[in-house]
């Protein structure tokens, strides 16, 4: 039988999903071109292989895997939806004689580490943090897809390979730190393929997440990882541009953030922001829990309150005319939200797709204690427990640094999301405090300074950095 039949079973299954169950169990079925690309990442072998498919849906992924595998191969597919489990069985019987479809939740099936090929496009939902026990200790997961992936990797036999279709979110951020560390210790990262456009691949399923393919294998880590930085489902992966990248160049910092592109060599001289003694915290005032302290007027012993509305280009202005209160009353003193007077760099935690920059930084100097809204990050030189303002020149230099194009490009590579989180910022390459002060001496913090002047000045300082 041809793979068209498998595709047809998938399309029929997709068309007859119950909308309610589709949402509940995240039944977003992989289209044939993406399935073929995922399977093409497996190493071809003449030996029969034992294949496992977790959350198999219509069975498309394991069926395409079985189709390209040697005679005598076998498939175990686990799917909790009875209709889809039946669809899996009919797809798989077209291509394989030894098929077991288990109509259960993957979390209710005990799997031995005996599989040579594990393939999955799991549900992506957030879950409350759960620790999964593994042979190398517990691993904390916060999404169903990482929970599935931990199970998939544990089911691999020595030398076995796993390909997963998952979102990009695991590559950065605090929530996935534990998972990243576990996965990178447990197996070899072989290949990453990141789809360039959001809608293209799951068009008929309405998926808008940034999705990628990850291939890992149960063998010692090799030095290079094959990276497809801008994949498209339109043509076979092997015909698309890819390069072997040193794993070292993909991983960043102790949190093991994974980047898809190699770091711009101009940035490789710099330590991370955290290593330079700069700490990023999130504004402490959650307004809707503190409505009673907000004030439209300045009251004796009150404090200025900064929102993203107060960011105006590279400067921070206070007060501004907007529909948000510009002060808090002295009641705020008892709420652990007031920050010491001094110089800081504020970074908006949210950006929109339309904004030219993902990172929007502004310099703040306050002669009095103040409060920052929770939608702002602020950079200081203290710790997570204690806020210590920056030197004034450092705050200005850092604002210029964070407003540069090179930093914005770096951030886009690290994070697939429009949110700018403190954890990612802390891992950002950053000049030393002395260098930041020199940058502040070279340019004023002034909204008449153009982007090209910022970039040129930083470019000059880079060569100065390399020459020193
Ligand atoms: C994103 S869909 C992908 C289906 C299929 N792997 C594919 O690529 O087309 C995820 C599948 O996992 C199934 N599923 C969700 N939670 C599950 C669980 N706990 N155990 C087994 N299957 C599950 C859903 O019913 C759905 O078919």
UniProtKB/TrEMBL annotation:
One Pfam match: PCMT
Keyword Membrane applies: no
Record lineage: Bacteria, Bacillati, Actinomycetota, Actinomycetes, Bifidobacteriales
Catalytic reaction(s) noted: a 2'-deoxyadenosine in DNA + S-adenosyl-L-methionine = an N(6)-methyl-2'-deoxyadenosine in DNA + S-adenosyl-L-homocysteine + H(+)
Keyword Transferase: yes
Keyword terms of this UniProt record: Methyltransferase, S-adenosyl-L-methionine, Transferase
Type II methyltransferase M.TaqI-like domain location: 105-197
Biological-process GO terms, alphabetical: DNA modification
Protein name as catalogued: site-specific DNA-methyltransferase (adenine-specific)
Molecular-function annotations in GO: nucleic acid binding; rRNA (adenine-N6,N6-)-dimethyltransferase activity; site-specific DNA-methyltransferase (adenine-specific) activity
Species this chain originates from: Bifidobacterium jacchi
InterPro entries linked to this entry: DNA_methylase_N6_adenine_CS (IPR002052), MethylTrfase_TaqI-like_dom (IPR011639), N4_N6_ade-DNA_methylase (IPR050953), rRNA_Ade_Mease_Trfase_CS (IPR020596), SAM-dependent_MTases_sf (IPR029063)
EC number: 2.1.1.72
């Amino acid at each position: 039988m041809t793979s068209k039949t498998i595709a047809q079973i998938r399309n029929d299954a997709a068309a007859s999903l119950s909308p309610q169950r589709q949402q509940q169990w995240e039944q977003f079925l992989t289209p044939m071109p993406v399935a073929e690309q995922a399977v093409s990442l497996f190493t071809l072998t003449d030996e029969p292989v034992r294949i496992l498919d977790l959350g198999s849906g219509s069975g498309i992924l394991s069926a395409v895997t079985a189709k390209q595998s040697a005679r005598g191969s076998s498939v175990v597919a686990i799917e909790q939806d009875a209709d889809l489990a039946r669809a899996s069985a009919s797809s798989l019987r077209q291509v394989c004689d030894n098929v077991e479809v288990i109509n259960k939740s993957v979390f209710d099936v005990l799997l031995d580490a005996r599989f040579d090929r594990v393939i999955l496009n799991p549900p992506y939902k957030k879950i409350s943090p759960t620790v999964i026990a593994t042979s190398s200790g517990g691993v904390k997961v916060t999404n169903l897809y990482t929970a599935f992936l931990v199970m998939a990797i544990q089911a691999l036999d020595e030398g076995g390979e796993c390909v997963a279709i998952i979102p990009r979110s695991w590559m950065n951020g605090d929530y996935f730190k534990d998972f990243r560390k576990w996965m990178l210790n447990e197996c070899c990262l072989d290949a990453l393929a990141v789809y360039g456009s959001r809608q293209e691949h799951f068009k008929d399923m309405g998926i808008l997440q940034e999705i990628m393919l990850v291939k890992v294998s149960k063998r010692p880590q090799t030095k290079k990882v094959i990276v497809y930085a801008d994949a498209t489902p339109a043509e076979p992966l092997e015909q698309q541009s890819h390069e072997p990248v040193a794993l070292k160049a993909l991983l960043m910092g102790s949190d093991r953030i994974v980047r898809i592109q190699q770091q711009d060599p101009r940035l490789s001289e710099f330590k991370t922001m955290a290593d330079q003694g700069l700490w990023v915290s999130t504004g402490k005032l959650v307004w809707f829990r503190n409505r009673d302290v907000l004030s439209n007027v300045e009251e004796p012993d009150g404090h200025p309150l900064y929102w993203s509305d107060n960011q105006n280009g590279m400067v921070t202005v206070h007060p501004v005319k907007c529909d948000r209160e510009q002060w808090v009353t002295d009641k705020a003193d008892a709420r652990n939200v007031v920050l010491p007077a001094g110089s800081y760099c504020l970074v908006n935690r949210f950006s929109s797709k339309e904004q030219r920059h993902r990172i929007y930084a502004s310099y703040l100097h306050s002669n009095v204690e103040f409060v920052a809204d929770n939608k702002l990050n602020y950079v200081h030189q203290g710790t997570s427990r204690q806020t210590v303002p920056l030197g004034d020149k450092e705050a200005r230099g850092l604002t210029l640094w964070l407003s540069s194009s090179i930093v914005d490009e770096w951030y886009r590579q690290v994070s697939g999301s429009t949110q700018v989180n403190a954890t990612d910022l802390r891992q950002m390459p950053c000049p030393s405090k002395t260098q930041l002060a020199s940058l502040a001496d070279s340019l004023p913090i002034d909204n008449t300074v153009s982007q090209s002047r910022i970039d040129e000045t930083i470019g000059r300082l880079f060569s100065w950095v390399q020459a020193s």
